[in-house]
Predict the 3D structure of the following.
Amino acid sequence: MAALLAVLSWVSLPLPFSPVPLTLQTLGVLLTGALLGPRYGVLATAVYLLLGFVGVPVFHGGTGGPGILFGPTGGFLWGFLPAAFIIGWFARSAAADRYGQAGPRGARGIIVMATGLVLASVAIYLVGLPWLSAVTGLGARETIVVGLLPYLPGDLLKAGAAFLLIRSLQPVMTPARFSASLGR
């Protein structure tokens, strides 16, 4: 999954008005957490960040090194850790079939999974936006304009794609395999 994160980060579109490029990294984090669960999802994400820290070109546009992790985009990258945990926890809850539903495919499971995807995406912003502001010296309004608003439509699409991919994988995974992939 760390390799998947790296590949998805190479799909990068710089924006002329922002130091934060558009990437598919968020999709990778959502899939990593949901498919591996909170513990292994965070571990795979940490491996990805560690690889980038030591200079392996796994970050946006094939970059790497501590300068990326501690630069303007660093907060978003660090936000991947709580995001992976959050979606992993919600995916495990959706799969638990606690309410007599059909696990993650039942109505309650769908709501739980969708909630987890949204909250995981919010977690990335909660770490990334203050970091962006602190590193660049931008005020709150400017930070929202260059670090949040342009990315919301894409992040909604990535969350929707993650939801569909996760749901499409459910029929091919036996309950035992799914539970094992969630770190149980």
User: Anything to note?
Assistant: The two ends are 18 Å apart (CA to CA).
